[in-house]
């Protein structure tokens, strides 16, 4: 979590008058989310008479978020704050990839294959992974899940690849 | 005497073999989660929600409750023995607990933590039983305007008690409220911000969001923290669990104070176990004759926070069971669990589902007893578990979460959404936004909208209804006052930041 190495104001794309980049960018993104929500709910009916339409509450919340996002960004301009923490790409990338793979694979190839492969993809996310160990643990975990979810808990899910079952 | 009849009924329910088993499983899983850093209570409860599908509702809720208070126990064990707080609630316990362990007094520290927790658990159980009925009556006097104001108060509490910037916490709540709007409108059925994605028609499931923001995001964060957390275990031989007479004399008042403080903070919306343990530790330090002993192995520093977090974990069920308002993120997930089983939390639950409410209350006492019996002998095993390296643990958690989310609706889209929220959560952490208020806002969103709409419909569009009804006005006034209080010291604290001594 410590971002001590790049505390120096180097490589900042933000203009100098931004004193708290972490808050500033955070606020801007919230504003973006709020605008997106306003756009997304623009087709919904607003107030009619004194009763709420489907779009009233979403718009109220979106406007609130817009104001709060702006306030956070203003704080980022006015007050000295931390720099944006360094992101690493490896962990997020492989964990996300593992999740996406699982989501795409569970229907066509079933629990056994998708859980095992996802485990190995997720394991790529750490540079400390030892492969033999990971494969053994992954296999055990897959076996455990394959017994736990469908049999012990009675949750129906595809187990094996479709083409093998048929 | 209705109280005793109710409690007796509860014990009959809780002592059925299935429920005893559920209670035991919950307590054990909770302890496990509490011991292992890197998986929090929220993520675990979210992860196990689908598992409770096949269970009867009483058993399911007993198990989930067990996880919550079990985690408080587990967290203290590792805090004391190896200075690794498995849960945020045990961070302060590590301060004095680990020092005691270093001085060879791990046994008494563990015993006092367990005794304190058990005592707190007993008091909290009685408190829930006593306060349940009157609060339910109060709840019946609530109209939509009062409900709305109460939820505002709850959210403000969450903000005031959260660490960090008040402004950012409010922003997170509103973000949560906004997320809760996705899906179908309750009254008109219009699809809102769902972009014609069928899986979004019912809204974002908060198990999905919780798993993303607390489960996946936490994993990703741990990974770039140079995953291998410092785990050189200083495994002490634990000799003699018995505290000395002096230990007991020293810690008894601390346990009582911690229990009272924890119970109060637990009931208040937005509170919860984390704040309770911090507050209890601070209180002990403030009133101690010799504050310098703290941080050097003062037994009060273990007794008070451990009692407080356990008391708070249990009393936070009170607003959920009586008013139907979840005071913190874990309770929000309990709402989810109840909804899955077709139970709408609120004042009517006490009357319509006495088995559920009283069974759960009784099970908490039984669970606490189980924890004290199970955990002291099992300490060695829990500590050994810490040797499982994170590089093997994290892919396992990822897979387990993914299967869990998939099984909720058999929907692959949910898994991808949880992944997306994992990345969003990672971003939030990087920008120092707290994810807990987001989840609370997300759960309260639909309730707030519904009550706001109703209140305005009844008042024929007159917004002054929120201040003209006395109960509602009082609630809003408290909320406003709290907010002012929260903002003022924040301003002052920022100015004095230079002089702040580094505490905890």
Task: Tell me briefly what this model is.
Chain B: Pfam families: TctA. Chain B: Keywords: Membrane, Transmembrane, Transmembrane helix. The complex is a heterodimer of chains A (166) and B (504). With 166 residues, chain A is mainly alpha-helical.
Entry keywords:
heterodimer; A: 166 residues; mainly alpha; 2 domains; flat; disordered N terminus; B: 504 residues; two-stranded antiparallel sheet; 1% strand; globular; disordered C terminus; Tripartite tricarboxylate transporter permease (chain B); membrane (chain B); transmembrane helix (chain B); DUF112_TM (chain B)
Q: Structurally, how many domains make up the residues of chain A?
A: 2
Q: Count of DSSP helices of chain B?
A: 21
Classification by helices and strands of chain B: mainly alpha
Radius of gyration of chain B: 22 Å
Main beta sheet of chain B: strand number and arrangement?
2 strands, antiparallel
Tell me the domain tally of chain B: 1
Helix content of chain B: over 70%
What share of residues are in beta strands of chain A? under 5%
Could you explain how this protein is built, in words?
The complex is a heterodimer of chains A (166) and B (504). Chain A is mainly α and 166 residues long. Chain A has two domains: 4-78; 90-165, no CATH class. Chain A has five helices and no strands. Chain A is flat. Residues 1-10 of chain A have low confidence and may be disordered. Chain B has 504 residues and is mostly helical. Chain B has one domain. Chain B is 73% helix and 1% strand. Chain B contains 21 helices and two strands. Chain B has helices at residues 2-14, 17-35, 41-48, 57-82, 91-102, 106-140, 144-161, 166-180, 206-224, 245-267, 273-287, 300-315, 317-323, 329-340, 347-352, 354-385, 390-409, 412-430, 435-458, 465-468, 470-495, and strands at residues 183-184, 191-192. Chain B has a two-stranded antiparallel ribbon. In chain B, a hairpin with a 6-residue loop joins strand 1 (183-184) and strand 2. In chain B, helix 4 crosses helix 5. The chains are: A mainly alpha (166), B mainly alpha (504). The interface between A and B is large, with 76 and 69 residues. Chain A: The chain crosses the membrane at residues 24-40, 60-78, 93-124, 131-153. Chain A: It comes from Bradyrhizobium jicamae.
């Amino acid at each position: 979590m410590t971002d001590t190495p790049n505390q120096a104001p180097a490589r900042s794309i933000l203009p100098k008058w931004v004193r708290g980049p972490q808050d500033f960018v955070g606020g801007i993104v919230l504003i973006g989310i709020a605008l997106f929500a306003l756009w997304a709910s623009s087709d919904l009916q607003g107030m009619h008479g004194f009763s709420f339409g489907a779009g009233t509450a979403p718009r109220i919340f979106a406007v609130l978020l817009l104001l709060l996002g702006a306030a956070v960004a203003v704080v980022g301009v006015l007050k000295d704050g931390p720099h944006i923490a360094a992101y690493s790409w490896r962990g997020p990338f492989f964990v996300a990839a593992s999740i996406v793979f699982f989501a795409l694979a569970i229907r066509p190839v079933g629990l056994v294959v998708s859980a095992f492969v996802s485990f190995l993809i997720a394991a790529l996310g750490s540079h400390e992974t030892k492969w033999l160990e990971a494969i053994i643990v992954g296999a055990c975990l897959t076996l455990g899940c394959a017994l736990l979810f469908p049999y012990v808990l009675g949750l129906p899910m595809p187990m094996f690849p479709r083409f093998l079952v048929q | 005497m209705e109280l005793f009849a109710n409690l007796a009924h509860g014990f009959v329910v809780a002592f059925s073999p299935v429920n005893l088993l559920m209670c035991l499983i919950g307590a054990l899983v909770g302890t496990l989660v509490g011991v292992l850093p890197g998986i929090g209570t929220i993520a675990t409860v979210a992860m196990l929600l689908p598992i409770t599908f096949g269970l009867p509702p009483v058993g399911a809720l007993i198990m989930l409750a067990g996880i919550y208070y079990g985690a408080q126990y587990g967290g203290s064990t590792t805090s004391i023995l190896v200075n690794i707080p498995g849960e945020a609630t045990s961070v302060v316990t590590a301060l004095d607990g680990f020092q005691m362990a270093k001085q060879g007094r791990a046994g008494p520290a563990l015993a006092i933590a367990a005794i304190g927790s058990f005592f707190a658990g007993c008091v909290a159980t009685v408190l829930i039983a006593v306060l349940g009925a009157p609060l339910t009556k109060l709840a019946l006097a609530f109209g939509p305007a009062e409900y709305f104001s109460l939820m505002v108060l709850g959210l403000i509490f969450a903000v005031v008690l959260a660490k960090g910037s008040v402004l950012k916490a409010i922003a997170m709540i509103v973000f949560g409220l906004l997320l809760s709007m996705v899906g179908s409108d309750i009254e008109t059925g219009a699809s809102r911000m769902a972009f014609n994605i069928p899986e979004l028609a019912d809204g974002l499931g908060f198990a999905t969001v919780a798993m993303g923001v607390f489960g996946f995001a936490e994993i990703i964060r741990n990974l770039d923290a140079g995953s291998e957390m410092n785990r050189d275990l200083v495994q002490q031989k634990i000799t003699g669990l018995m505290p000395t007479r002096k230990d007991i004399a020293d810690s008894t008042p601390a346990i009582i104070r911690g229990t009272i403080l924890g119970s109060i903070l637990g009931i208040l919306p937005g509170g919860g176990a984390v704040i309770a343990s911090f507050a209890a530790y601070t209180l002990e330090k403030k009133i101690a004759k010799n504050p310098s002993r703290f941080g050097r192995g003062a037994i009060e520093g273990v007794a008070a926070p451990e009692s407080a977090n356990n008391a708070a974990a249990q009393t936070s069920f009170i607003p959920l069971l009586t008013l139907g308002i979840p005071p913190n993120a874990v309770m929000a997930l309990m709402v989810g669990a109840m909804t899955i089983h077709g139970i709408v939390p609120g004042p009517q639950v006490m009357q319509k589902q006495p088995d559920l409410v009283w069974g759960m209350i009784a099970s908490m006492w039984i669970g606490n007893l189980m924890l004290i019996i199970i955990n002291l002998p099992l300490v060695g095993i829990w500590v050994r578990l810490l040797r499982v390296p994170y590089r093997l643990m994290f892919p396992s958690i990822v897979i387990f979460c993914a299967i869990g989310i998939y099984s909720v609706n058999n929907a692959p889209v949910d898994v991808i959404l949880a992944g997306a929220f994992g990345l969003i959560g990672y971003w939030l952490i990087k920008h120092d936004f707290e994810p807990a208020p987001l989840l609370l806002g997300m759960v309260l969103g639909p309730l707030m909208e519904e009550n706001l709409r109703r209140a305005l419909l009844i008042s024929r569009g007159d917004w002054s209804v929120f201040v003209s009804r006395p109960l509602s006005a009082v609630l809003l006034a408290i909320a406003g006052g709290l907010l002012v209080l929260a903002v003022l010291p924040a301003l002052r604290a920022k100015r004095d930041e230079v002089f702040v001594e580094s505490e905890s």
